[in-house]
UniProtKB/TrEMBL annotation:
InterPro entries recorded: DNA_pol3_chi (IPR007459), PolIII_chi_sf (IPR036768)
Protein name, as recorded: DNA polymerase III subunit chi
Swiss-Prot/TrEMBL GO biological process terms: DNA replication; positive regulation of DNA-templated DNA replication initiation
Species assigned in the record: Tanticharoenia sakaeratensis NBRC 103193
Superkingdom of this protein's organism: Bacteria
Record GO terms (molecular function): DNA binding; DNA-directed DNA polymerase activity
């Protein structure tokens, strides 16, 4: 994955790319809490999935979420995309004006991320290929000048490594 190099016009737009190392759950299990916190801040989110099948699976998982109880969202092909606080897509579309982006493993090349306040890069720590790909993305993002954070899933919650 190539990360766009930030120029002076974009230096402060992306405050942080957080790498979220999943060790105890799937993205479908981890995302509800992260998305709930996003909505609590008043922000909107776009979740970029690797495929239309992953969009459908995540859509169903978010409707079944019990913590938080309700995560209002829409998905590619659905109604009123501009009104959705959370938008699920397998593309680069951001019809809801999201300022938080969630990238799921396998997304591949992504469009410029400089319009987002925060980017969450979630990857499966049990899959060596995903860990290796996350390391490559980390190196590229660091070289492009982004502020980075690494979060590892623990028994209870997340721990930020320094």
């Amino acid at each position: 994955m190539r990360w766009p190099v930030r120029g002076r016009a974009h230096e402060r737009r992306v405050t942080e790319i957080g790498f979220y190392h999943l060790t105890r759950s799937t993205p479908e299990q981890a995302l509800p809490a992260l998305l709930g916190r996003t909505l609590d801040t008043g922000a909107r989110a776009v979740v970029r999935c690797a495929s239309a099948e992953q969009v459908r699976a995540l859509d169903a998982a978010l409707w079944r979420s019990t913590d938080p109880v309700w995560l209002p969202h829409g998905a590619s092909g659905g109604p009123s995309p501009g009104r959705q606080p959370i938008w699920l897509t397998a593309g680069d579309d951001v019809p809801n004006g999201a300022t938080f982006a969630f990238l799921l493993s396998g997304v591949g090349e992504v469009a410029a991320l400089d319009g987002f306040a925060r980017v969450f890069d979630l990857f499966d720590g049990g899959e060596e290929a995903q860990v290796a790909a996350a390391r490559t993305r980390w190196t590229a993002a660091k070289a492009a000048g982004f502020t980075l954070a690494y979060w590892q899933q623990q028994q209870r919650g997340w721990k930020r490594a320094r």
